[in-house]
Design a protein that fits this description.
- By secondary structure, the protein is mainly alpha-helical.
- The strands form 2 sheets. It has a 3-stranded mixed β-sheet. A two-stranded antiparallel ribbon has the order 1-2.
- The chain starts with a strand and ends with a helix.
- The N terminus is likely disordered.
C-alpha cells in the first residue's frame, strides 16, 4: 500500500509526502520468519516413517521371510486402507491427480513464492518440506507393494515344481487351455461386433463384484491371498493411453486398480484380475498374471473364465508354436472359431497402436523399474507360461 504523511509548512499549508511503496503482505514478523525457517513437525514425522520404510526395504531384500511377513500383514493393512478410502469414488483418483498436476504444481510454486522466498534458509526449508511429502510416496511403495518383490515365489506358495519346460509340455498345456476356452464358450456365447470382437455383458461395477467373489473362492484354497472388497477403476483417457501399450496399472499411492477401457473387451476381466492381484500383494508380473488366471477360471461367470483361458492361451501359443508347429496347428483347428476371430480382431485393433514413441518410453521406464526390483523386467509378464505349465504338469 502507499503510505502518505501530511506536514504543514510555516504558512499552515498542507504538503503531502509519499514514502516508499510496499505491500503489507510482505511484512513478516521476526517470530513468523523464524517459524518458516524451521521444518514443521509433520515433515519430520514423514521423514521418520520413510527412514523406517528404508530399513524394512533393506531387510526385505536380505530376507524373504521378513518380506513375506511385512507384505502379508503390514502391506495388507496399507493396501486395504487405501482401497477402502478410494472405493466409493467412481473414477480413478490417480488419473485425476496426474491430469491436474500442472494446476496444483503451479499453486505450490505460487505459495512458495509468497511464503518462503525471504532468505536462502526459508527456501531450503520449503525444499525439505516438499522432500518430506515425496518421501511419503516411497513409504507407501515399501509398505504397500515393494516388499512383495522379495517374498517367496508364487510357485513355492502353490507347491508347484517350476522346472525347464519340455516341448510336449507346452503343447499339452495349450491343449488344456483350448479345452477351457471351448468349454466357456459352450456355456455362454457372447455378442460379437462386426470386427469379430466380443462384448463384455456387464458393467465395470458388476465385473468388480464378480472378481471379488472369484478371489474369495481362490482364497479358500490359497490362504496367503488376503480378503479385500475392492473395485476396478475405468480410466477416462483410455484411448490415448493405449498408445503406451498399457492395459492396466495398479497405483500403489491410491490403492486403485486402473483399467484401460479402450482395449478389446475379452482382455478386460483378465487385466482387472491382474491389477487386483497387485492390490492383494502379488507384486511380480508373472505371478500377478497367473493369479489372475486362477481367479478367472474359478469364477462362476463363463465370460470371465473365457477371458482367463484365452489370455493365457495367447501367452502359451507362441512358444508352443516354436516348439511343435504341427501340434500347435492341430490345437488351433479345434479351437472355437469365435475365439480365433477374437484373436484376429485383437491383432487388427492393435495395428494402429503398434508403433508409437509413447510405448517405447513407457516400456523402457517399466522395464527399468521391474529390473530394479530384482525381476527380469518386462520379460517377466511372459513367464506366466512357466507357471501355467507347472500348474498343469501334475494334473
Amino acid at each position: 500500500m502507499k503510505m502518505k504523511l501530511f506536514k504543514k509548512n510555516e504558512k499552515d499549508e498542507e504538503i503531502t509526502v509519499v514514502t516508499d511503496t510496499y505491500d503489507s503482505a510482505d511484512v513478516v514478523s521476526p517470530e513468523e520468519l523464524a517459524r518458516r525457517s524451521h521444518l514443521p513437525v509433520w515433515s519430520k514425522v514423514l521423514f521418520g516413517i520413510s527412514a523406517a520404510a528404508l530399513a524394512v526395504y533393506i531387510c526385505a531384500i536380505l530376507n524373504g521371510d521378513i518380506a513375506d511377513f511385512f507384505n502379508r500383514y503390514i502391506g495388507s493393512a496399507v493396501r486395504g486402507a487405501l482401497a477402502y478410502l478410494t472405493y466409493l469414488f467412481p473414477l480413478s483418483l490417480a488419473e485425476i491427480v496426474l491430469i491436474t498436476a500442472p494446476v496444483w504444481g503451479t499453486l505450490v510454486v505460487i505459495y512458495a513464492g509468497r511464503h518462503y522466498c525471504y532468505s536462502w534458509k526459508t527456501v531450503f526449508t520449503f525444499m525439505l518440506i516438499m522432500a518430506s511429502a515425496a518421501s511419503m510416496l516411497f513409504s507407501l511403495f515399501v509398505f504397500g507393494l515393494g516388499t512383495g518383490y522379495y517374498c517367496p515365489t508364487l510357485d513355492e506358495k502353490l507347491g508347484l515344481e517350476r522346472t525347464p519346460v519340455a516341448p510336449e509340455e507346452l503343447t499339452r498345456t495349450l491343449d488344456i487351455l483350448a479345452d477351457g476356452v471351448n468349454g466357456a464358450l459352450s456355456e455362454y456365447k457372447p455378442e460379437y461386433g462386426e470386427d469379430g470382437a466380443s462384448v463384455m455383458p456387464y458393467s465395470y461395477g458388476e465385473l468388480s463384484r464378480k472378481l471379488v467373489d472369484a478371489y474369495d473362492k481362490v482364497r479358500e484354497e490359497y490362504g496367503f491371498i488376503p480378503g479385500l472388497s475392492s473395485r476396478v477403476k475405468p480410466v477416462m483417457l483410455s484411448k490415448p493411453w493405449t498408445y503406451t501399450h498399457i492395459s492396466g496399472v495398479y497405483t500403489y499411492f491410491t490403492g486403485e486398480a486402473n483399467i484401460n477401457t479402450n482395449m478389446p473387451d475379452y482382455t478386460i476381466p483378465f487385466t482387472a484380475a491382474h491389477e487386483m492381484a497387485h492390490q492383494r500383494g502379488v507384486s511380480r508380473e508373472d505371478e500377478a498374471n497367473f493369479t489372475a488366471f486362477l481367479v478367472c477360471i474359478a469364477s462362476d461367470d463363463p465370460y470371465i473364465r473365457y477371458s482367463g483361458y484365452l489370455s493365457v492361451f495367447e501367452y502359451v501359443a507362441s512358444p508352443a508354436y516354436a516348439a511343435d508347429k504341427d501340434g500347435y496347428v492341430a490345437i488351433l483347428r479345434r479351437l472355437d472359431p469365435a475365439a480365433i476371430g477374437e484373436m484376429q480382431a485383437y491383432n487388427d485393433f492393435f495395428d494402429k497402436y503398434a508403433d508409437s514413441v509413447a510405448s517405447e518410453v513407457t516400456g523402457a521406464i517399466n522395464d527399468t523399474f521391474l529390473k530394479s526390483q530384482g525381476t527380469p523386467g518386462e520379460k517377466s509378464y511372459g513367464m506366466v507360461v512357466d507357471l501355467a505349465v507347472a500348474y498343469y504338469r501334475g494334473k
